[in-house]
Amino acid sequence: MSRRTSSADSRLVQAAGPVTRRGILALLGLGAAALAAPALSGCSSNGGGTPVASGVPTGAATRGGALRLAFPGSGAADSLDPTVGQTSCDMVRYAIVFDQLFSFDNGTAQPSLAIAAEPDAKGENCTLTLRQGVTWHDGSPFTAADVIHTLKHRASPDRVFPSELSQYFNLVAARRVDDHTVVIPTVKTVGDPATLLAGSGLYVIKNGARSFTVDDTVGTGPYRVTRFQAGVETQLERHATYWNGAGNAEKITLLSIEDPQARVNAVRGGQADYASDVSYSTAKSGAGGAGLQIRTGGEGLRTTYGFVLNVTRGPSADPRVRKAIRLGIDREALVKSVFLGFGAVANDLFGAGAQHFLDTVPVPEHNPAQAKELLKAAGADGKPFVVRTAEYEAGLNASAELFVEQLRGLGLQATLVKVGVTEGFDAEGMKACDALAFPLGPFSLALTYTRSAAYPTLALPDEELNRAVATAISTSSEAERAAAWTTAQQVMADRGNWVAWGRGDVLSLAKEKLTGIDGRESPKYPWLGKAGFVA
Fold it and tell me: Which CATH number fits domain 99-212: 3.90.76.10, 3.30.2130.10, 3.40.50.10470, 3.40.50.1470?
């Protein structure tokens, strides 16, 4: 294994590179990310007597018909450009109009437009082997020229959100070997390039594409755009020659509806077949109609709720304070109050469900007496402690309110700062807080540990942690990678700055016979390439 960038690799923030707001939104589960939804495993109860299905119905969908599905949008900011969108509606649309080189399925990177990504022996280049027999919506063949154009397009400094892959690969230097082989020089040694590519949100666009209107948005995905009205709807039709098998529904309409109750009302009123991101309180009250079903993506796809402690200032810099907070908070009370029966306590680690996640780490005991002793020993008793929150997930602000109450009970002079979602990750605001409310979707550990460390206010400057993460990213040995991720997670569990207190279900409302809603990237923006109704 090459160590040509070992000095840089020992620093996690350098390995991560600068992260844009879009990158942080993606890390929260509001942009690109990670695992697959399970098949229907039966029903459970939410504690209020309403049956909740886990996953989607079994059985093949019938061919034909039309679907209407409602997702959170952003009004006029909705876009057909796969490099700028941020909302679930955008991401759902991109995933069925375009394809990525690799996508996540069952927690690992799986081939899509690329069937292999191999680093060379020196770690200086990555060779992509592309899938043959793929056609664009206009009938032209997919080739290496399309991939090279995509890489250079995403690396361009005039992009609203330049690709973070530039921190690992020299994208502008990618070169064609033949029509189905591309070589990309690396900036840092990457042992598992497929995982980084799968988590990058890199949708492949056609060679020469620079604008994205209804007339010139051409993809290789299972559906093509026929009508688009930002903030209202997108109409799509089946791409009959899709390389992975044509879709079931003839037409799909994506409704862009920002208000969660309006999405639910659309299904209950018959205007939609599916509504994503249903609130816990709505789910608690039941589906609200015959033939409708509240669904959860399953335990492996839960969103982890927590707080990241800012070790650059105040009490959180002391590991005794961090341990005191982990021991002192009442996780059961938080779970009961926020998830309303749709979740469980967490063990202070983000990344649950990902490959190599260390689920053997126990949930810290609730020991407020020891927590108070640790705070006094650290000289933090009575010290100011600012908690910052924005409602990126339903119940996040409520969790921050309860968190502040619990911190006050331990002896900290805790106060709460609530801001809007557009301000949540303002750099100066983050610097001025001691803890930041932080939800994470089901992500690969590579994304979880590098992106979350991109801001100093989110990072843990620990040499053992940095070395472990750098090794996990750079090694081509699966055994060495697994061992490195174990070390990284043990460091975070022992002295880290994460207080991940609970994992909440991602809920939706759907017609009972709707199937093929595949949460391969995230249950917040599932893949609809095989969606349809069972007979």
Answer: 3.90.76.10
